[in-house]
Amino acid sequence: MRKEEPYTEAERPKQYFTGTGRTLGATSGASTSAAPAPASSISAGEWTGVDDTKPTTSLQLRLPDGSRMVARFNNSHTVQDIRRFVSTSRPDITAAYQLMTAFPNKVIEGEHQTLEAAGLLNAVIILK
């Protein structure tokens, strides 16, 4: 060290956050009392994809492991098609789960409702 030079601190290696994200807060306990529909009985069949000639919407799916997926669906797809998409794209999710809206937190009922009829166009859906 020289007296004429200003002090320079040695560079330390940067440590970035490498963990997974978790949402703060919890859903209301009232909706968790309903039994979740088993994914295997509802998700029979393969995901057929999106027909670009029909109106489409994007859904953000928040998965149980904290990750998220954004998927395109036709407005005429059903809630059951969301389950088919999840089982096709993420076969590692084998546990039964409920589909819930982000705000207000409520369980999505009616597996055969279209996304438009269920009010799920451009929505955030939580798998719980």
TrEMBL record:
GO BP annotation list: autophagosome assembly; Golgi organization; membrane fusion; nuclear membrane reassembly; proteasome-mediated ubiquitin-dependent protein catabolic process
Location of the UBX domain: 52-128
Alphabetized Pfam families for the sequence: UBX
Biased composition (Basic and acidic residues): 1-14
SMART domains documented for this protein: UBX
GO cellular component: cytosol; nucleus
Ranges of biased composition (kind: Low complexity): 18-45
PROSITE patterns registered for this protein in UniProt: UBX (PS50033)
Alphabetical list of InterPro entries matching this protein: Ubiquitin-like_domsf (IPR029071), UBX_dom (IPR001012)
This protein's UniProt keywords: Ubl conjugation pathway
SUPFAM superfamilies: Ubiquitin-like
Region ranges (Disordered): 1-60
One Gene Ontology molecular-function label: ubiquitin binding
Source taxon at top rank: Eukaryota
Name of this protein: UBX domain-containing protein
Upper classification of the organism: Eukaryota, Viridiplantae, Chlorophyta, core chlorophytes, Chlorophyceae
